[in-house]
Design brief:
Number of strands: 2
Number of helices: 9
Structural class: mainly alpha
Shape: flat
Helix content: over 70%
Length: 237
């Protein structure tokens, strides 16, 4: 039985071993069969779920069905590969490839479900809602790299690629860390600004023009404050 090493170099040799070892062929066949079964089944379930999202009288159920429709394929695929892992383990066949696929796809389903649930719960602005796929892909990529044992070597490679500006060394890892920190604080400020805006728009003691002006001012102040806090966390003077 081939064990997958956390080292990326050995992990690549594991892929070669999967191809050269005939016993691993069944794992690849099982993955293809799982894909062939779950892909059309997920399409049917997605259409069934989305066809029932027109009922505006029950918004929570509608939003739950919309979220569930987004993750039905990775969820079904993870379940199918999990069943194959159990069957292979009982038969004494190598199931490491299936196990890895089940964990990675299962993690994708969990990340997507969490991101889309937060999007429906917080109801951000359309610009922020458009980033949900990017955020989900980023979180899943980091999770997958950590599970495969590739995260630390990738971070080391990013740290090695650097330039010197004056007396300060700036690497790609610093850039990625700065970008992610800023993005996190700005998204949090935008969500908070959206909540404040909704509450302010319901304040009848102010005129419509004053409510709009206050809402825009508060949202801008929150964004500037979030950027300053992010730079302070990063240690930027």
């Amino acid at each position: 039985m081939i064990e997958v090493s956390p080292s990326p170099r050995l992990a690549l040799s594991d892929v070669t071993a999967y191809i050269s070892d005939p016993s691993q062929l069944w794992g690849l066949i099982a993955l293809v069969v799982c894909l062939a079964i779950t892909w059309p089944l997920a399409g049917v379930l997605q259409r069934a779920l989305l066809s029932r999202t027109s009922d505006v009288s029950r918004p929570p159920r509608t939003e739950f069905r919309q979220t569930l429709a987004r993750v039905v394929f990775p969820g079904l695929f993870a379940i199918a590969t999990g069943v194959c892992v159990a069957a292979f383990s009982l038969s004494g066949w190598p199931a490491q490839l299936l196990r890895t696929a089940a964990v990675l796809v299962g993690a994708l389903a969990v990340v997507q479900f969490a991101i889309y649930s937060l999007t429906h719960a917080l109801k951000p602005a359309p610009t922020l809602a458009a980033l949900e796929r990017v955020i989900a892909a980023l979180v899943w990529t980091i999770t997958a790299l950590a599970f495969l044992g590739w995260l630390h070597p990738v971070l080391q490679a990013l740290e090695a690629m650097s330039i010197t500006i004056g007396a300060r060394r700036f690497s790609l890892l610093d850039g990625a860390r700065t970008t992610l920190t800023l993005l996190g604080f700005i998204l949090a400020a935008a969500y908070l600004g959206r909540v404040v805006e909704r509450r302010l728009m319901r304040a009848v003691q102010f005129s419509a023009g004053m409510r709009i002006g206050l809402a825009k001012t508060l949202k801008l102040a929150l964004l500037v404050l979030s950027a300053l806090i992010a730079f302070n966390v990063l240690g930027v003077d």
